[in-house]
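Page 42, continued from yesterday. The earlier attempt failed because a stray header line got pasted into the input along with the sequence. Redoing it now with the clean sequence only.
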Amino acid sequence: MRLRAPNLPAMKRFIAAVAACSLMALGPVAHASLDAGAGPGPGYFATDNVEWVTNVPLQNDTSGAELFGKYFYVTTSRGLTIYDISDNLNPQLLSFLPVPQEPTVPEEDVDTNGKILLIGTLGTLYVIDVEDKSNPTIIGQLDGADNHTISCILGCTYAYGSEGVIVDLRDPTNPKLVGNWAKGTPSPSGGHDITEVAPGRIVTSTSPIMLLDARKDPVHPKVLALGPDTGGRYIHGNLWPEQMKDRYMLVGGESGPPTCEGDDTGSFMTWDTKGWQKNHTFTLKDEYRVHQGLPTDGNAPVNQWCAHWFDTHPNYSNGGLVAMAYYDHGTRFLQIQPDGKIKEVGWFLPAAAQTSAAYWVTDRILYTVDYQRGFDILRWTGDI
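This time it went through. Structure tokens are written below.
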């Protein structure tokens, strides 16, 4: 199935005219917070360096997806959908596999090596054969191995769950529960995700964050370093770009209502990794938070949740562009400076946004998935 964009010029002219009349009736409108300015579109506000291309509304309760090669894997409470994105502005739906999951919180960080894909739900881990993208098939399952998220380790020969489970996947048709990475460690709390930042080296989104080494013994990983004291805040996700070669680790928190602005709430952070081999820890460098306000300024009038999944630009290297999903506050475009400082450089704010993840498809095109909208296709026209 080919999803085609609407007649954007005509639609934009119509929406802009309606919006302009409405705004004139309401009186003066605050200016955008960025020099680039902002303008209304069909159901959104955005800075001038972000262009909305189209919307794919079918997966409108997704909390995350996976971009692997030329395929986009999207999970919802109903199941798994696979898109061919060879033509990234016109993704083609290839298949749908029913995998009923928990409402509002299906597998949000679905992981794959392109051959098998992992979904944990309702107490069970499902191993899905996705080599034939038109016909994904469940080939293995393991009761009692469903953590909040489940991640491929060492080429998907093992899987680590966010709360500790270790699963042997060397025979994907017969997955085996073989250990718990949290045992014998500094009792981490709030396990939300696992990121393999380099082959066999894993950063846990826990409090405290831990850097684990599973290269020699995946069943009994070694603790290499611990994150700094963050006051027990909830850590949602992390990336250490370029397989741990970048100086700054990127870390996202998550928080619920009523605010996104306090010291104990969800923020996007840079952590300095310099000297971690000697000190076995990291240092908080900078933080970014959103603020309540007007949509014309890129803000949400009410905060429900703060900070979710983020992705680095394909050209990212010791700094660069990051796209960050921020629930009510849509997608934020952040520039990481060489000194680790964070600067906001753009945003895309849909009406009634609940944006859960952002994925760079090319150096200009990205997909943003949303609990309310399915996924939007955006074009970044700003500096790279």
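Notes: The two ends are 33 Å apart (CA to CA).
Reminder to self: strip header lines before submitting.
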